[in-house]
Amino acid sequence: MSFPLKLMWSVIGILVAIAYGLLISGIIRKVMARIQGRIGPPVYQGFIDLGKLLVLRTATHHGVMFYLAPIFRAAGGIGLYLLIPVVVGVPALENFSFTGDLLLVMYFMFFGSLGMALGAAESGHPHSSIGISRGLSQMTAFELPFALAVVALAASAGSFSISDIVMAQQGGILHWNLFTHPLAAIAAFLAFLGMNMYAPFNIVGAPQEIPAGPPTEFNSSFLSLMMAGRSIFAVAKMVLFMDLFLGGATNLLEVLVKTFLIYFWSVFVGAVFPRFRTEQSIRFFLGWPTVAGVAAVLLVMLNR
After folding, report:
1. How many CA atoms lie within 13 A of 214 on its CB side?
2. By the 8 A CB rule, do 96 and 6 touch?
3. Per-domain residue ranges for the chain?
4. Beta carbons of 95 and 84 less than 8 angstroms apart
5. pLDDT tens digits for range 100-136
């Protein structure tokens, strides 16, 4: 496929991913509201909020990095999505994946969060340093078991290519890494809870702390960029986990089913557990998830 055609399909994929992320977040908000005995907003509320924020303007004045932070967030999500094949074997849906793309994907997962941290530092809020330290500390903690799980999968497949890892899982459900590498799956899916930052790991954007969080500091089109970036980042992570552990997908319907189930895992946990304190969250990720990741790597090394 020629580069212009691939670029066109990638742009379409980005727009679809943003819409899917907004829709699934609306569904989850409705589910959480029902669990708590509320009616909740309509599932399309995210689209309304995004459109409203795009036409607003702000009179807030901070440093340059403050305004670049939402752009970093959106760029991180878009870049992550473009490196992940959605459906392996379909050129229009493979995006710009290449040999060794898994290594670059792991770097891009930091990109948006680091940009937001730099933006918060110039927000002028007296508690911004607390939020930065909380967020980056937890991010470092959950990235450790996830990185160990990725190393185990790459060592088993003999490649850091996401497409190669997907192809190694073909042959039926029992060939999925979810079942052939259960320790790596445990480490990664526990780390996924921290990546989505639902309870009990919403130590930065918890509902109790929203008045001092990014939705207050950023507004108008800056907040719309944050919403779009968060939506596509969530979709990119779901597609990545689908490729790494659920055998990838052969069509878009399979993508929707698998990614929804992956996302609902973190929502289910968040609905039944209260929020951890920062030190509890870090202690959790450096505990059993990291142990499972180390064991997964050792097991692969022993079986080679």
Report:
1. 27
2. yes
3. 3-303
4. yes
5. 789 889 888 888 778 777 777 777 677 777 777 888 8
